[in-house]
Amino acid sequence: MKNCYSCILIAASLIAFAVPVKVRAEEVTLSCYKIESGRVVLYLADAVKIIPISGTIEQTWLGDDGLYYVATREESSAVIAYIGWIDPGSLELPAERKLPVEMKDVSIRRLCIKEDNAYLLCRSKTSSEGGGTLYRISMQTLEVSQTPGVFDLYASGQDIVMIMDTGSGRSVVLGGITVSLTISGDLKLQNFVDGRLVFVTNGEETEIIDIRTGKGLHQYSSKYEYMPPGEYDFIVQVTDELPLESGNRDMVLYKVFINGVESGRTDTGPAGVVKEFRNMLEPDHEYVVQLERWELNIAKGRYERVNNILQPKTCKVAIPLNRVIKLMVTFNGKDYTYNLLPVYR
Length: 345
What we know:
- The protein is mainly beta.
- Among the domains are: about 1-100, no CATH class; about 235-340, Immunoglobulin-like, CATH 2.60.40.
- It has no helices and 29 strands.
- It has strands at about 5-10, 30-35, 40-45, 50, 55-65, 65-75, 80-85, 95-100, 105-115, 115-125, 130-140, 145-155, 160-165, 170-175, 175-180, 190-195, 195-200, 205-210, 215-220, 235-240, 250-260, 260-265, 270, 275-280, 285-295, 300-305, 315-320, 325-330, 335-340.
- The strands form 6 sheets. A 7-stranded antiparallel beta sheet has the order 9-10-11-12-13-14-15, with no helix packed on it. Strands 21, 22, 23, 25, 26 and 27 form a 6-stranded antiparallel beta sheet that branches.
- The protein is elongated, with a radius of gyration of 25 Å.
């Protein structure tokens, strides 16, 4: 397993596994640890302590009360996860609890401990599409709750920031604050600075969010050049997934409402052809966008609004400074999917 290095605070007093207590600063000395296959190596001030761990150590979390880890083991053809805690007072064999979560065919991307709860982000080993599942597990009762569509999370202080699919695209979420992202791919939370600046990257592009004000501040790329606004800074593109050869030849247009006001409509065309709308909106503001689907009634010779069950839902779009963004909407005959993307030169 790839070695990882970090630091662990070693305290003089014994701390109970189920009820952590705070360590006084005068009781703390600084040391380091390394994760190796089947063991944790602790580097103390004047010694090295090796603590054997059964199974594969997937993730670790360094808390004020010690070092937590999640290890997986194969048991009766199943892959079982155990959460363990290394007592910084005794440094003896860790206390462990078996987690009620099946780990077969998934990888554990993140572990963090907050307020006596373990947060475990699991992703499929075969696909990164659709994000992963975030498990919130009570350390006291082992009660489990699940949140699907989570791509990454980052914990700092009392805050847990997440990248997740909100139903209208990928967003950064902190509590009740949600900010839409315009970059795509395998997104990761790179950093969380001063409790407000969130850095999100896909390896080639980075987007900086002020999560406290709910605004996108900046976006840069090592590979692409973004298109600056000219006559427009917001594009909507809508299409049906069903190809024309499938018999889907309905003539369709979409009316576009921004903050409840009709702002125009897309061009008209067969359902499987991309229909586009462009507008110039004031940047550094968030807007509620609602599309309304209309189809041609050939018998009556006019366009009619389709039933509510086939209408797109509203979505929120934040218009960034000095960039053009595009809302891509796809209809599969039943549901709509939304992707907010940058526009390149």
